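Run: sequence + heme C -> complex structure.
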Amino acid sequence: MNRLRLLLLMLGFGLAGIQGGVLAADDKPQFGAANRDKDCTRCHDANDAKPVLAIYQTKHGVRGDARTPGCQTCHGDSASHIKDAPKNKPDVVFSKGTFEVSDDKTRSGQCLTCHTGKSRNNWDGSQHQNNQLACNDCHKAHAPADKVMVKKTQTEVCFTCHKEQRAQLKKVSTHPTEVGKVVCSDCHNTHGSPGPAMVKKNTIVETCYTCHAEKRGPFLFEHQPVTENCANCHSPHGSNIAPMLITRSPFICQSCHDGPHTTDSPVGRNAGGFQSGLTQNATGSNPSSHATGRGCLGCHSVIHGSNSPSGGYFQR
Ligand code: HEC
Ligand code: HEC
Ligand code: HEC
Ligand code: HEC
Ligand code: HEC
Ligand code: HEC
Ligand code: HEC
Ligand code: HEC
Ligand code: HEC
Ligand code: HEC
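>> structure
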């Protein structure tokens, strides 16, 4: 046995001895996040104004799980705070109270030590990260139930900042959001996404297809704006024109189509091809069948795409 190994062996025995001695003297079990909590919970106990100990009822309180964070995993060792509170502040402060709140990067950094990757691959550079949000601007660690994780209560959290979407969801035609059936996180990955407006998939259509698969086709005749972006015609958060349309037919169609028979243009009507023989104005004293009732949809009724051999114009 060389001298180094002997030294290490002695050191090992020595440490074991010291540890055993400490255990016996202080009656402290093994170090571990959950047990170390005692350094904090001797002051922050059930009498705290805020229900700090409710964390033990959450996924962060599963004592048997070695990955479970303790008070100090999130708030830092906070040695000076333990020694002299409230004169000294804890290392990491997440919420407004007695002390100044730590900056967003520090706060998120604590969570990201365990929660990198997966749905958070695009957190850095996301609109939320860029606007100095931290994880706990949405997630509550000490609440028995984290509102943002529960479909029925999630929108409350988002609406504290997104008033415009709250207003849109009060309109006549909306997704069944209020009953908790389709919520923000069904379409958005609020941790960040490579797609526009932080939608879950890379594009808006792909996101909508996850539930509206029948709109994907494949169709013999595709309608270009449908394959491009559902939001060309639909307002995904709600509208007063069912079903969640940006504007009414025929105006919605006329915003893109000004060709033959779609307007009152003499060029169109005299240009051969289809002629309805009607005034095709949507307004005026003698509105056409194109403009009344279901407008263009009266004839072009399968607007998302058609498989009928004679349906090249989105008719049945
Ligand atoms: C000696 C008692 C004591 C110990 C030990 C202690 N704290 Fe505190 N802590 C306080 C007091 C007093 C305050 C001031 C606010 C209050 O009354 O809750 C405070 C405030 C805090 C705050 C900020 C709350 C706010 O309203 O701003 C956090 C976070 C905190 N402590 C975490 C910890 C953590 C984590 C530990 C263990 C590492 C710990 N404390 C240990 C007494 C203590
Ligand atoms: C020491 C590692 C660790 C740290 C630090 C940590 N967590 Fe966790 N977190 C976990 C573990 C373990 C789970 C349980 C995972 C499971 O059940 O699969 C979890 C679960 C969660 C969940 C899911 C809860 C649910 O109901 O499904 C959320 C949300 C979460 N953590 C947010 C946070 C936030 C926010 C922070 C920072 C304030 C944080 N975590 C810090 C380890 C950690
Ligand atoms: C803008 C609000 C918001 C912010 C900020 C936010 N989250 Fe989330 N988080 C959510 C929502 C909503 C869900 C539920 C997603 C779902 O059901 O698909 C969620 C789910 C989670 C989950 C559980 C599911 C999973 O993806 O593993 C973890 C863990 C989590 N968040 C951690 C974090 C961490 C860490 C941060 C900070 C880097 C963070 N969150 C920032 C809103 C947010
Ligand atoms: C998963 C990370 C995490 C762990 C573990 C954790 N905290 Fe917190 N703590 C937070 C966050 C985030 C907040 C901000 C309020 C919230 O999210 O509920 C907070 C807030 C607090 C506050 C301020 C009161 C409040 O609700 O705003 C105190 C005091 C506190 N924690 C003490 C503790 C103590 C004591 C422990 C151990 C029993 C502990 N924390 C464990 C993340 C954590
Ligand atoms: C059915 C899917 C869907 C749901 C549910 C949904 N969104 Fe969106 N959201 C979108 C799409 C698609 C866009 C992009 C709209 C566009 O480009 O016109 C968007 C855009 C946004 C924007 C950017 C501003 C804007 O309006 O273009 C915010 C903010 C937003 N959503 C927040 C929310 C919030 C908060 C919720 C929950 C209350 C929510 N969204 C629910 C699909 C959805
Ligand atoms: C603390 C405030 C806050 C909370 C809570 C919050 N957001 Fe945001 N969100 C912002 C800010 C700030 C921006 C960037 C500026 C903007 O676009 O309004 C943003 C941007 C967005 C965008 C992208 C907008 C775009 O133009 O690309 C979406 C989508 C979004 N938030 C959805 C949500 C959802 C869903 C929730 C709830 C799970 C939520 N937010 C919670 C503040 C918040
Ligand atoms: C999580 C699933 C889900 C996603 C994702 C989704 N939807 Fe929906 N959508 C629904 C449900 C559920 C309904 C209600 C169906 C019902 O009431 O029969 C609905 C209804 C609709 C309606 C008809 C509303 C009415 O009044 O008849 C339109 C239009 C619509 N969605 C468009 C979209 C668009 C555009 C997207 C993408 C931005 C999208 N949806 C993403 C689930 C989803
Ligand atoms: C060119 C405009 C336009 C585009 C783009 C569009 N829609 Fe529509 N959508 C409509 C119109 C108009 C209606 C009403 C049809 C009717 O009343 O017959 C409708 C109705 C719906 C409905 C309810 C009735 C039904 O057919 O199920 C859903 C769901 C829907 N659209 C989803 C989508 C999805 C998902 C996308 C993207 C893949 C999309 N729409 C793209 C114009 C459009
Ligand atoms: C965002 C723009 C946009 C909107 C809104 C729109 N379309 Fe289109 N539409 C197009 C484009 C682009 C084409 C493909 C044009 C081409 O192939 O020359 C197309 C093709 C068509 C065609 C087939 C034309 C052909 O020659 O095969 C019909 C019919 C049609 N649209 C009807 C409608 C109706 C009805 C509406 C209203 C419900 C509508 N469109 C709304 C952009 C739009
Ligand atoms: C009375 C039934 C009817 C109505 C209403 C109608 N269309 Fe058509 N549309 C047709 C028929 C039939 C064709 C095929 C023309 C052909 O075979 O030459 C057509 C062709 C088209 C085309 C492709 C050829 C072209 O002229 O560009 C477009 C685009 C179109 N319609 C858009 C519209 C729009 C937009 C409206 C509402 C303003 C509308 N249609 C209303 C029956 C109708």
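>> summary
The pocket of heme C (ligand 5) is lined by residues 155, 158, 162, 165, 169, 175, 182, 184, 186-188, 196-197, 199, 204, 231, 236-237 (CB under 6 Å). The radius of gyration is 31 Å.
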